[in-house]
Protein backbone atom coordinates (compact mmCIF):
# COMPACT_ATOMS: atom_id res chain seq x y z
CA UNK A 1 0.00 0.00 0.00
CA UNK A 2 1.40 3.38 -1.04
CA UNK A 3 1.76 5.85 1.83
CA UNK A 4 0.54 9.34 0.94
CA UNK A 5 3.04 12.15 1.17
CA UNK A 6 2.50 14.90 3.71
CA UNK A 7 2.02 17.40 0.85
CA UNK A 8 -0.74 15.26 -0.66
CA UNK A 9 -2.51 15.03 2.69
CA UNK A 10 -2.20 18.79 3.21
CA UNK A 11 -3.89 19.41 -0.16
CA UNK A 12 -6.72 17.02 0.73
CA UNK A 13 -7.29 18.68 4.10
CA UNK A 14 -7.67 22.11 2.48
CA UNK A 15 -10.86 20.82 0.83
CA UNK A 16 -12.42 19.79 4.15
CA UNK A 17 -14.69 22.29 5.89
CA UNK A 18 -16.24 20.31 8.73
CA UNK A 19 -14.70 18.86 11.89
CA UNK A 20 -16.61 15.61 11.44
CA UNK A 21 -15.24 15.08 7.96
CA UNK A 22 -11.77 15.97 9.18
CA UNK A 23 -11.92 13.25 11.83
CA UNK A 24 -13.09 10.71 9.24
CA UNK A 25 -10.10 11.34 6.98
CA UNK A 26 -8.06 8.13 6.43
CA UNK A 27 -4.88 9.85 7.63
CA UNK A 28 -6.38 11.22 10.83
CA UNK A 29 -4.35 8.84 12.98
CA UNK A 30 -1.17 9.15 10.92
CA UNK A 31 1.52 9.74 13.54
CA UNK A 32 3.90 11.73 11.36
CA UNK A 33 4.49 15.19 12.85
CA UNK A 34 3.92 16.93 9.52
CA UNK A 35 0.57 15.23 9.12
CA UNK A 36 -0.55 16.04 12.66
CA UNK A 37 0.48 19.68 12.17
CA UNK A 38 -1.59 19.78 8.98
CA UNK A 39 -4.63 18.41 10.84
CA UNK A 40 -4.15 20.90 13.70
CA UNK A 41 -3.84 23.77 11.24
CA UNK A 42 -6.98 22.80 9.35
CA UNK A 43 -8.90 22.13 12.56
CA UNK A 44 -8.12 25.67 13.77
CA UNK A 45 -9.14 27.08 10.41
CA UNK A 46 -12.47 25.23 10.46
CA UNK A 47 -13.14 26.30 14.05
CA UNK A 48 -12.43 29.91 13.12
CA UNK A 49 -14.82 29.72 10.16
CA UNK A 50 -17.52 28.20 12.34
CA UNK A 51 -17.08 30.97 14.92
CA UNK A 52 -17.28 33.63 12.21
CA UNK A 53 -20.49 32.04 10.92
CA UNK A 54 -21.96 32.03 14.44
CA UNK A 55 -20.93 35.68 14.89
CA UNK A 56 -22.59 36.57 11.60
CA UNK A 57 -25.81 34.84 12.60
CA UNK A 58 -25.76 36.75 15.89
CA UNK A 59 -25.37 40.01 13.95
CA UNK A 60 -28.51 39.13 11.96
CA UNK A 61 -30.61 38.94 15.15
CA UNK A 62 -32.37 42.29 14.76
CA UNK A 63 -32.99 41.79 11.05
CA UNK A 64 -34.37 38.28 11.58
CA UNK A 65 -36.73 39.44 14.34
CA UNK A 66 -38.19 42.08 12.01
CA UNK A 67 -38.50 39.63 9.11
CA UNK A 68 -40.21 37.04 11.30
CA UNK A 69 -43.09 39.44 11.87
CA UNK A 70 -42.88 41.26 8.53
CA UNK A 71 -41.47 38.90 5.87
CA UNK A 72 -41.47 41.58 3.18
CA UNK A 73 -39.85 44.29 5.28
CA UNK A 74 -37.25 46.50 3.65
CA UNK A 75 -34.67 46.96 6.40
CA UNK A 76 -32.22 49.84 6.24
CA UNK A 77 -29.10 50.08 8.36
CA UNK A 78 -27.75 53.56 9.08
CA UNK A 79 -24.45 54.65 10.57
CA UNK A 80 -22.15 57.65 10.52
CA UNK A 81 -18.45 58.34 10.62
CA UNK A 82 -16.59 61.52 11.43
CA UNK A 83 -18.25 62.99 14.51
CA UNK A 84 -14.95 63.46 16.35
CA UNK A 85 -12.48 64.92 13.81
CA UNK A 86 -11.43 68.56 13.76
CA UNK A 87 -11.83 68.77 9.98
CA UNK A 88 -13.99 67.47 7.17
CA UNK A 89 -17.67 66.58 6.92
CA UNK A 90 -19.62 64.06 8.92
CA UNK A 91 -20.67 61.22 6.62
CA UNK A 92 -23.66 58.88 6.98
CA UNK A 93 -24.50 55.80 4.98
CA UNK A 94 -27.83 54.03 4.53
CA UNK A 95 -27.76 50.42 3.35
CA UNK A 96 -30.47 47.92 2.41
CA UNK A 97 -28.91 44.47 2.22
CA UNK A 98 -29.85 41.96 -0.44
CA UNK A 99 -31.71 38.74 0.38
CA UNK A 100 -29.51 35.81 1.38
CA UNK A 101 -26.59 38.13 2.17
CA UNK A 102 -23.50 36.48 3.58
CA UNK A 103 -20.67 38.84 4.48
CA UNK A 104 -18.77 36.59 6.84
CA UNK A 105 -16.30 38.59 8.92
CA UNK A 106 -18.24 41.86 8.75
CA UNK A 107 -18.00 44.02 11.84
CA UNK A 108 -17.81 47.59 13.08
CA UNK A 109 -15.61 49.27 10.45
CA UNK A 110 -13.18 50.52 13.12
CA UNK A 111 -12.41 46.92 14.12
CA UNK A 112 -11.41 45.88 10.60
CA UNK A 113 -8.07 46.45 8.95
CA UNK A 114 -8.00 48.61 5.84
CA UNK A 115 -7.59 45.69 3.41
CA UNK A 116 -10.59 43.81 4.83
CA UNK A 117 -12.65 46.99 5.03
CA UNK A 118 -11.92 47.96 1.41
CA UNK A 119 -12.70 44.45 0.19
CA UNK A 120 -16.03 44.36 2.04
CA UNK A 121 -16.86 47.85 0.80
CA UNK A 122 -16.50 46.74 -2.83
CA UNK A 123 -18.58 43.61 -2.23
CA UNK A 124 -21.31 45.57 -0.48
CA UNK A 125 -21.55 48.26 -3.12
CA UNK A 126 -21.76 45.61 -5.86
CA UNK A 127 -24.39 43.41 -4.23
CA UNK A 128 -26.67 45.19 -1.79
CA UNK A 129 -30.20 46.15 -2.80
CA UNK A 130 -29.43 49.84 -2.25
CA UNK A 131 -26.86 52.06 -0.58
CA UNK A 132 -26.42 55.81 -0.33
CA UNK A 133 -24.25 58.46 1.27
CA UNK A 134 -25.33 61.61 3.09
CA UNK A 135 -23.04 64.40 4.18
CA UNK A 136 -23.09 67.45 6.45
CA UNK A 137 -20.38 70.04 5.84
CA UNK A 138 -18.06 71.64 8.41
CA UNK A 139 -20.14 74.82 8.06
CA UNK A 140 -23.33 72.91 8.87
CA UNK A 141 -21.62 71.22 11.82
CA UNK A 142 -20.61 74.63 13.18
CA UNK A 143 -24.09 76.03 12.65
CA UNK A 144 -26.16 73.11 13.98
CA UNK A 145 -23.74 71.27 16.35
CA UNK A 146 -22.29 67.85 15.56
CA UNK A 147 -25.27 65.85 16.86
CA UNK A 148 -27.83 67.66 14.72
CA UNK A 149 -25.46 67.67 11.74
CA UNK A 150 -25.09 63.91 12.08
CA UNK A 151 -28.87 63.50 11.90
CA UNK A 152 -28.93 65.79 8.85
CA UNK A 153 -26.37 63.56 7.13
CA UNK A 154 -28.48 60.50 7.98
CA UNK A 155 -31.64 62.08 6.55
CA UNK A 156 -29.76 62.90 3.36
CA UNK A 157 -28.49 59.33 3.07
CA UNK A 158 -32.05 58.03 3.39
CA UNK A 159 -33.27 60.48 0.76
CA UNK A 160 -30.55 59.30 -1.63
CA UNK A 161 -31.66 55.65 -1.51
CA UNK A 162 -33.49 54.33 -4.56
CA UNK A 163 -35.83 52.20 -2.41
CA UNK A 164 -38.15 53.16 0.46
CA UNK A 165 -37.30 51.24 3.64
CA UNK A 166 -40.05 50.04 5.96
CA UNK A 167 -37.84 49.71 9.05
CA UNK A 168 -34.64 51.47 10.10
CA UNK A 169 -31.85 50.12 12.27
CA UNK A 170 -29.78 53.06 13.48
CA UNK A 171 -26.56 53.19 15.43
CA UNK A 172 -27.38 54.94 18.73
CA UNK A 173 -29.51 57.70 17.19
CA UNK A 174 -33.21 58.54 16.93
CA UNK A 175 -34.46 60.29 13.79
CA UNK A 176 -37.58 62.27 14.65
CA UNK A 177 -38.56 62.93 11.04
CA UNK A 178 -38.62 59.26 10.04
CA UNK A 179 -42.21 58.01 9.93
CA UNK A 180 -41.51 54.30 9.49
CA UNK A 181 -40.54 52.15 12.51
CA UNK A 182 -36.97 52.52 13.70
CA UNK A 183 -34.76 50.77 16.21
CA UNK A 184 -31.85 52.56 17.84
CA UNK A 185 -29.08 50.15 18.82
CA UNK A 186 -26.19 51.12 21.10
CA UNK A 187 -22.96 49.96 19.43
CA UNK A 188 -25.15 48.84 16.56
CA UNK A 189 -22.22 48.60 14.15
CA UNK A 190 -21.03 45.56 16.13
CA UNK A 191 -24.52 44.07 16.69
CA UNK A 192 -26.40 44.50 13.41
CA UNK A 193 -25.14 43.38 10.01
CA UNK A 194 -27.09 46.17 8.31
CA UNK A 195 -25.54 48.86 10.50
CA UNK A 196 -22.09 47.28 10.13
CA UNK A 197 -22.48 47.46 6.35
CA UNK A 198 -23.40 51.14 6.59
CA UNK A 199 -20.44 51.70 8.91
CA UNK A 200 -18.02 50.24 6.37
CA UNK A 201 -19.36 52.14 3.37
CA UNK A 202 -19.40 55.42 5.30
CA UNK A 203 -15.86 55.01 6.64
CA UNK A 204 -14.28 54.05 3.32
CA UNK A 205 -16.08 56.95 1.61
CA UNK A 206 -14.91 59.46 4.22
CA UNK A 207 -11.35 58.11 4.39
CA UNK A 208 -11.05 58.48 0.62
CA UNK A 209 -12.48 61.99 0.81
CA UNK A 210 -9.93 63.00 3.46
CA UNK A 211 -7.14 61.59 1.30
CA UNK A 212 -8.33 63.90 -1.47
CA UNK A 213 -8.30 66.81 0.99
CA UNK A 214 -4.71 65.92 1.84
CA UNK A 215 -3.75 66.73 -1.76
CA UNK A 216 -5.40 70.13 -1.35
CA UNK A 217 -4.10 70.79 2.18
CA UNK A 218 -0.88 68.73 2.51
CA UNK A 219 0.34 70.18 5.83
CA UNK A 220 -2.18 68.47 8.10
CA UNK A 221 -1.57 64.78 7.37
CA UNK A 222 -5.23 64.24 6.47
CA UNK A 223 -4.45 61.07 4.51
CA UNK A 224 -3.29 59.41 7.74
CA UNK A 225 -5.48 61.01 10.42
CA UNK A 226 -8.79 61.54 8.52
CA UNK A 227 -9.10 64.92 10.23
CA UNK A 228 -8.60 63.75 13.82
CA UNK A 229 -6.40 65.83 16.11
CA UNK A 230 -3.13 63.95 15.84
CA UNK A 231 0.27 65.49 16.62
CA UNK A 232 1.00 66.22 12.95
CA UNK A 233 -2.43 67.72 12.44
CA UNK A 234 -2.02 70.03 15.44
CA UNK A 235 1.45 71.01 14.25
CA UNK A 236 -0.04 71.87 10.86
CA UNK A 237 -2.63 74.06 12.55
CA UNK A 238 0.10 75.82 14.56
CA UNK A 239 2.28 76.66 11.57
CA UNK A 240 -0.20 76.97 8.69
CA UNK A 241 -3.43 77.96 10.35
CA UNK A 242 -7.05 76.93 9.85
CA UNK A 243 -8.38 75.71 6.49
CA UNK A 244 -11.90 76.07 5.08
CA UNK A 245 -12.64 72.44 5.98
CA UNK A 246 -11.85 72.82 9.69
CA UNK A 247 -14.71 72.88 12.20
CA UNK A 248 -14.50 76.32 13.73
CA UNK A 249 -16.58 75.51 16.82
CA UNK A 250 -14.28 72.61 17.77
CA UNK A 251 -11.32 73.07 20.09
CA UNK A 252 -8.50 73.87 19.49
CA UNK A 253 -9.75 75.50 16.27
CA UNK A 254 -12.08 77.80 18.22
CA UNK A 255 -9.20 79.04 20.39
CA UNK A 256 -6.95 79.65 17.39
CA UNK A 257 -9.60 81.88 15.85
CA UNK A 258 -10.43 83.83 19.02
TrEMBL record:
GO terms for cellular component: cytoplasm; ribonuclease H2 complex. It catalyses: Endonucleolytic cleavage to 5'-phosphomonoester. Residues 73-258 form the RNase H type-2 domain. Its cofactor is Mg(2+); Mn(2+). A divalent metal cation binds at residues 79-80, 171. Signal peptide: none annotated. The keyword DNA repair does not apply. Manganese or magnesium. Binds 1 divalent metal ion per monomer in the absence of substrate. May bind a second metal ion after substrate binding. Its EC number is 3.1.26.4. The keyword Hydrolase applies. Keywords: Cytoplasm, Endonuclease, Hydrolase, Manganese, Metal-binding, Nuclease. It is an enzyme of class 3 (hydrolase). It is found in: Cytoplasm. Endonuclease that specifically degrades the RNA of RNA-DNA hybrids. NCBIfam families: PRK00015.1-1 (NF000594), PRK00015.1-3 (NF000595). This is Ribonuclease HII. The lineage of its organism: Bacteria, Bacillati, Bacillota, Bacilli, Bacillales.
Amino acid sequence: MTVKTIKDIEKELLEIMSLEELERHPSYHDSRKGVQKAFTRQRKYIQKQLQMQQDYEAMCKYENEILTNHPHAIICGIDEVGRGPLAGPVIASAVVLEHNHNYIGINDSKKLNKLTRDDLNLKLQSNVTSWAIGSASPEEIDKLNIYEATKLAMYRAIQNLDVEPTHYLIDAMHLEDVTEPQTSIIKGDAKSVSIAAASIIAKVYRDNLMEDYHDQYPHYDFHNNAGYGTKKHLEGLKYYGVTPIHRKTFEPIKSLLS
